[in-house]
Specification:
By secondary structure, the chain is an all-beta fold. The protein is built from no helices and 32 strands.
Length: 412
């Protein structure tokens, strides 16, 4: 069944015309999966709920939702490669609610090696926090809480953060904001003279601009893009733009999902190509099996700054092969090919990793590059990252030798 795993509590006049290209038939090309580390659910943590991030030395970092001892409210971990395999080190364990509960969203690493992330809950108002982890000279880490949400107009239950590359942090919350809706906010944390100040860039109202925003990304022209899991004119979620103009932020709705062939409930953010077009997934919709559709991969083509067209690149089908219910943000490789995961489906029901290649005629063909064969090899995969070695890396929320999730590598 579909799983909205990013939502901490608990979606059109059409902007442009909904188009559907000829959808290519899904094919299968096996990649070699290697399990880098299987979480035991003890002091090393359990249930990684987001993608991984590399540092310059080739180490991987991620977050877990919890464990039986130590960081019972989640942890931040490092995976270090060696000739004999990968070693996990917990670099921060959330052991007290005031410190934060359930870190969420991929971590962000700055050019100084600091890591930033968010916790869904915890802090003084139990509405979540944003934290920073800084490496120390002795090889350890120092954790600082840089913002605690009050749960009011500043937002509640953050769902991840990004950096603008100039030392400022941006993110979204699932809740809080305007009291008439409490539908979430987009926020900025500005760093100045050793302290952090929150600025709410936009508070969502449900109709028409959506509710429960997730997944921000910058472009090189106007500012920020993201999605909302719900709300909009049809209740199926939206894709929005926040343009930074004359020192102010203006929100525009680029697409409101109808719940039909165009998709329904985007629970991950979008990515931007060099032409300024956007690519993303919806968790449901598309109309090919499943109770409410099995999800789609879509493109929003920029016609102008005020006009966009949605193109469905692939519809997932409930046929046991190409996967169902995508929940993770897509990635590009250097050639413009798309990669992603589905949370369920595939021949064994544990999810898939897929590639989408554009054909000469403009259609896209999906290739399943990994079907997670058994829970012991991982189940419910999160978003992927591309390593400098050409391999794909990721984590799976469930499965593994101990049933508490794992980190994996996919080699072509």
């Amino acid at each position: 069944m579909p799983l909205n795993k990013f939502q901490a509590v608990s979606r059109r006049a059409i902007v442009g015309v909904v188009l559907t290209l000829a959808i290519g038939v899904a094919t299968t090309a096996a990649a070699k999966e290697s399990v880098l580390y299987a979480f035991t659910g003890s002091s090393d943590g359990a249930f990684p709920d987001s993608g991984l991030v590399f540092d310059d030395a080739g180490n991987l970092y991620g977050t877990n939702q919890g464990g039986k001892v130590g960081g019972i409210y989640g942890n931040v971990f490092e995976l270090t490669p060696s000739a004999s395999g990968w070693t996990e080190t917990v670099i921060h364990a959330f052991a007290d609610p005031s410190d934060g509960i359930n870190p969420v969203g991929p971590l962000v690493r700055d050019d100084k090696g600091n890591l930033f992330g968010a916790t869904v809950q915890g802090g003084g108002s139990n509405a979540g926090t944003v934290f920073e982890l800084s490496p120390t000279s002795d090889g350890g880490w120092t954790k600082s809480t840089i913002y605690v949400f009050s749960g009011g107009s500043d937002g509640a239950y953050p769902s991840g953060v990004i950096s603008d590359g100039r030392g400022n942090i941006y993110g979204t919350t699932d809740n809080g904001g305007d009291t008439s809706c409490s539908c979430g906010v987009v926020f900025e944390l500005k760093h100045s003279k050793g302290s952090w100040t929150e600025i709410v860039l936009h508070s969502f109202l449900g109709i028409p601009d959506g509710k429960v925003p997730v997944g921000l990304v910058f472009d090189n022209v106007v500012g920020l893009y993201g999605t909302t899991e719900g709300g909009g004119l049809y209740g199926g979620g939206t894709v929005f733009q926040l343009a930074h103009l004359n020192h102010r932020w203006k929100e525009s709705i680029l697409h409101s999902f109808t719940g039909g062939a165009d998709g329904y409930l985007p629970v991950a953010g979008v990515i931007v190509d060099q032409a300024g077009d956007l690519y993303g997934t919806t968790n449901e919709g598309g109309g090919d099996g499943c109770q409410n559709g099995c999800g789609v991969v879509f493109e929003l083509k920029r016609i102008s700054n005020e006009k966009w067209k949605e193109v469905v690149l692939h519809r997932f089908k409930d046929n046991g092969h190409d996967g169902t219910y995508p929940t993770a943000t897509l990635i590009f490789d250097g050639k413009g090919n798309l990669y992603g995961t589905t949370y369920e489906g595939g021949a064994y029901g544990n999810g898939t990793a897929f590639e989408l290649l554009e054909s000469f005629d403009g259609s896209w063909v999906e290739t399943v590059i990994e079907t997670f064969i058994s829970p012991s090899r991982g189940s419910q995969p999160n978003s992927l990252i591309l390593g400098t070695d050409g391999n794909l890396y990721g984590s799976a929320y469930d499965g593994g030798a101990y049933g508490d999730g794992l980190a994996f590598q996919l080699s072509p």
